[in-house]
């Protein structure tokens, strides 16, 4: 997982549901995949 995925998991610990964090992780992987390569 990218650093973004870990960050989302950290936010989930703050109070956000884990399921949403996982869904965001999948979406963020696609969205952050291009920017991260730059």
Separation of termini?
17 Å
Structural class: mainly alpha
Number of strands: 0
The number of domains: 1
Percent of residues in helices comes to over 70%
Question: Could you outline the blueprint of secondary structure elements for this entry?
Answer:
Blueprint: H1 3-14, H2 18-37
Helix pairs in contact: 1-2
Detailed description of the structure:
- The structure is a single chain.
- With 38 residues, this protein is mostly helical.
- The chain has one domain.
- The chain has two helices and no strands.
- It has helices at residues 3-14, 18-37.
- Helix 1 (3-14) packs antiparallel against helix 2.
Short descriptors:
38 residues, mainly alpha
Gist of the model:
By secondary structure, this protein is mainly α. The protein contains 2 helices and no strands. The longest helix has 20 residues, at 18-37.
């Amino acid at each position: 997982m990218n650093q973004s995925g870990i960050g989302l998991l950290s936010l989930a610990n703050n109070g956000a549901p884990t399921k949403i964090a996982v869904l965001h992780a999948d979406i963020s992987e696609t969205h952050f995949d291009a920017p991260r390569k730059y």
